[in-house]
Amino acid sequence: MAKPIELGLVLEGEDAKRFWEDRKHPKVTKEQVEMFKEARRIYKTNFKD
Length: 49
What we know:
Elements: H1 13-24, H2 30-46
């Protein structure tokens, strides 16, 4: 039987604070926003209910 994977990463101090801040307020680039808009347009064009 396979052994479970043990996680070994532990963030502390400033690293932990920065991680949670990034999770609460993710930052995206203009290129990413445009990519999502294009993906939404493609979806709506090809997968109508």
